[in-house]
Write a structure and sequence with these properties.
single chain, 451 residues, mainly alpha, Serine Threonine Protein Phosphatase 5, Tetratricopeptide repeat, 23 helices, 86% helix, elongated
């Protein structure tokens, strides 16, 4: 009877029906005569389930019990697997040093045992740490190593995770076509296996790419799919990502109330699973809205909180955004020296991590600041860089904003013809975004040129 119930629970687990799997496994635990190897696997699977549910304390407790049992029966494969799972858990909760320790213990066992499947999995996890810390080249190397091993061994589960992560790297580096292909491969294989949690995450990642390209309707369609999958299956992390990307789209469209609502939903999800990198991203996003709407004290509070978390994590993308939004805050209060320093810090990190999206965004605002400080040469250089990058990678929002600022620069220099050209380019993109406020602003600027 017990073995039959374990089989049923395992089937629920493999099919990602985690609620029923949890119920069945806990029913099995009522039996005191379970073989130790079976008991260790059971606790490990429950740890996975609770991690997916966002209950990381319960997840760690179950992983630890499983690890102790595997050590007792000297099962090196099980020990390595638990070290890996604990590494993932610590990574997700921002305990990066513990995560690295767990991964290194796991990969040492797997390499000694010739377990290349395990090595591929750890390469994926170490790649995630390198990515978070801004070492995109090392991350890319780790993910490609995992992908090569996984393709050789036909490990579809690893292929989709490695491909998705490589897609994120190429998105950051501005190679949108390669990123799109990686995400689409992830979606295709995730459908086939199926791995619906990875599928939900891939929908959100591809949507984020489409947001960068200005394809908002396509992005929204993918996000709706992701949200439905997450709600139906209680997947939290990809749900937070979906809400966050929706917020980015609404902000680009000028729908600030809707954007705030989406960001807050993302924050609620990230808080529930202690996803610190996500919390940083949302704090910066909410602060950006507060700066736009003039709530500068609230913005500063959020940015200081983000800095505190960033300092503990060394989260490079988050630190870039943190400096960038703090610069915007300083610019809003006319503290141009402080704004310049913050923009330079953001620019330095974006350049060192080869994050072309953020490099374009920071260059754009540095150009705007240079106009305010009457540094015409610097303004022209920064805005030309922002335009070159945004046009090269297809980052439509920054292309529009850079054209708007370049129009302002030419208007200040009385180059009305060039100003008009830039304003019209900016207006065309903002019209595609359905951002009525920006379109109205540009129309006013165009009218003033004719006055």
């Amino acid at each position: 009877m017990t073995q039959d119930l374990i089989k049923i629970a395992d089937e629920f687990f493999v099919s990602e029906n985690y609620e029923k799997a949890e119920e069945a496994y806990n029913e099995v635990l009522k039996n005191q005569n379970i073989p130790e190897a079976e008991l260790a696997k059971l606790y490990c699977n429950l740890g996975v389930i609770y991690s997916v549910f966002g209950d990381f304390i319960k997840s760690e407790d179950h992983y630890t019990i499983s690890l102790d049992i595997y050590k007792k029966i000297d099962n090196s494969k099980g020990i390595s697997n638990l070290y890996c799972n604990l590494g993932v858990l610590y990574y997700n909760t921002g305990k990066i040093d513990f995560a690295k320790e767990m991964y290194n213990k796991s990969i040492e066992i797997d390499e000694n045992n010739g377990n290349m499947t395990g090595v591929a999995a750890i390469c994926i996890n170490l790649g995630a740490i390198y990515f978070m810390q801004g070492d995109l080249n090392q991350a890319e190397e780790s993910f490609y190593k995992a992908l090569t091993i996984s393709r050789h061994l036909n490990l579809d589960n690893n292929i989709i995770i490695a491909s998705s992560n490589l897609g994120n790297i190429f998105h950051f580096k501005g190679n949108f076509d390669v990123a799109e292909n990686m995400f689409k491969e992830t979606i295709l294989i995730s459908h086939k296996i199926p791995r619906i949690e990875v599928l939900a995450a891939a929908f959100s990642s591809l949507a984020s790419l489409y947001y960068s390209k200005g394809n908002f309707d396509e992005a929204a369609e993918l996000l709706e799919k992701s949200i439905k999958i997450c709600k139906d299956n209680k997947f939290k992390e990809p749900l937070g990502t979906a809400y966050y990307v929706f917020g980015e789209i609404d902000k680009a469209r000028g729908n600030y109330n809707k954007a705030r609502e989406m960001y807050q939903k993302a924050l609620d999800v990230y808080n529930s699973i202690a996803k610190k990198t996500g919390i940083i991203d949302v704090f910066c996003a909410l602060a950006s809205l507060d700066v736009i709407e003039g709530d500068l004290k609230i913005a500063e509070t959020l940015l200081l909180a983000a800095f505190e978390i960033n300092s503990a994590l060394s989260y490079a993308p988050g630190m870039t955004e943190n400096y960038f939004e703090y610069a915007n805050l300083n610019k809003a209060i006319n503290d141009y020296d402080a704004a310049t320093e913050m923009y330079k810090n953001a620019f330095k990190i974006a350049k060192s991590t080869e994050d072309k999206e953020k490099l374009a965004k920071v260059s754009c605002e540095m150009g705007s600041l240079s106009i305010l400080t009457d540094d015409i040469k610097a303004a022209q250089n920064y805005l030309e860089l922002a335009l070159d990058l945004s046009e090269l990678i297809g980052y439509k929002e920054i292309e529009a904003t850079s054209n708007l600022y370049m129009g302002d620069l030419h208007a200040n220099l009385s180059n009305r013809g060039k100003a008009r050209q830039n304003y019209i380019k900016a207006r065309e993109i903002f019209e595609d975004f359905d951002n009525k406020d920006k379109v109205e602003l540009i129309n006013i600027k165009l009218s003033s040129l004719s006055a």
